[in-house]
Amino acid sequence: MIKGAYIGGSGACLSGPAAFSGGDFRITAFCPSGAGAAAPAAPADRRSYADAAALLLTEQDLEFAAVSLPPGESFRAVQLSLERGLHVICEPPFCSSTTEFETLREAAERKKRIIFPVQPWEHAGPWRALEKAITRGLAGEINFAEVQALLPGPPPDGGATAGPGWQAFSMLLAMMRRPPSAIEARLDAGTAAFHAHFGGGDGFVHISFGAAAPRLRAAVSGVNGRLEMDGNLLRLDVKDLPRETVELRHELVPGLCRPEWLAAELSDFRKEMNGEMPRGSGLRNSRYCVKLLKNASYSASVKSAAIPL
Predict the structure, then answer these.
(1) CA dist 248 to 85, 119, 177, 261, Å?
(2) 118, 137, 171 — which closes off a domain?
(3) Do 129 and 114 sit in the same domain of this protein?
(4) For a Cys staple, 185 with which of 51, 173, 293, 300, CB 3.0–4.6 Å?
(5) Would 268 be classed as within a structural domain?
(6) Angle, to 10 degrees, between the axis of helix 71-83 and the axis of helix 98-111?
(7) What DSSP assignment string belongs to 125-194?
(8) What is the pTM assigned to this prediction?
């Protein structure tokens, strides 16, 4: 049994200590630090602390920490956990700048530990089908990608990018498969629009709150055709092949976390902890997600100017 501590509240993916019930993991200590109204109830059989630093100093038999906090608070909690010698699984975004990201990455390297931003949607059938089609080269050389996320209700504290921004940029980077060179952004109360420049291609993200229903759409196009994931549908429009629409079992919408997706993500976390996956696997695209989110805010503040990355 792998023992760990839970620091924070109920996030989009990590819903509290209960997220680690069953399987190989067990939460033995809990600190709802900074969680406020979102704090889950402390289980009766877990030791509870009011301060994360006190928890990490007191508990001696931990192997990992699970962190679900806003980026500013998350950075400090992840840093403390790494310095304590723990592996970290965390709700992204977990820091606010590339400087903070490099500080955490260097701490993980020094302590020979891992940072694993939880992204269970990567195990969703529609997304895996789209990735497989891209990998097969069905679209050819990709020159365009877009992600559209529609969410009901008002935006969370921190604006339209606070929740789905990381997921949207992670998807965009996974589809374009090369680093971005610049970002332009427009941020309003309930909407966010981004144009990311890639060498030989363009990527677009649009996030909007107040929608009638949640919806997530991701598409790429290249010299050989267009591939699109829309909820539980995969649409293929490929040169010299008949158009095809594939309906998959489960729909993928912004922030959705099915139990089997989270279980698969926790399995990957365990494998990386144990050396069955290369150290750093969980950080794929994370540095650019942090960089895009940081520089998008700056672009929006200077009349949506293109900011080099």
Answers:
(1) 42, 20, 24, 15
(2) 118
(3) no
(4) 300
(5) no
(6) 20
(7) HHHHHHHHHHHTTTT-SEEEEEEEEEESSPPPTT-TTTTTHHHHHHHHHHHH-S-EEEEEEEE-SSEEEE
(8) 0.93
With beta carbons less than 8 A apart as the criterion, state whether 134 and 142 touch. Answer: yes
Cα separation, 234 vs 114, in Å, equals: 34
> Is 41 in a helix, a strand, or coil?
coil
The pLDDT, as a whole number, for residue 255 is: 84
Which of 85, 118, 151 is at the close of a domain? 118
**Which residues constitute the domain of residue 158?**
122-256+290-308
CATH code, domain with 295: 3.30.360.10
Q: Residue 37: what pLDDT?
A: 43
Complete DSSP assignment for 85-121: T-EEEEPSP--SSHHHHHHHHHHHHHHT--EEE--GG
User: What type of residue sits at position 15?
Assistant: S
pLDDT at 161: 78
pLDDT at residue number 42: 58
233/138 same-domain check: yes
Same domain membership, residue 131 and residue 38 = no
206: its two tokens: 């649009």
Identify the segments of the chain with pLDDT beneath 70: 33-45
Tens of pLDDT, residue by residue over 197-212, are 999 999 999 999 999 9
* Residue 280 included in any domain: no
Distance (Å, whole) CA 74 – CA 56: 14
The pairing of beta strand 25-31 with beta strand 47-48? parallel
| Number of alpha carbons in the 13 Å side-chain half-sphere of residue 93 | 28
Q: How many domains, the chain?
A: 2
**Dist. CA 233–CA 130, nearest whole Å:** 10
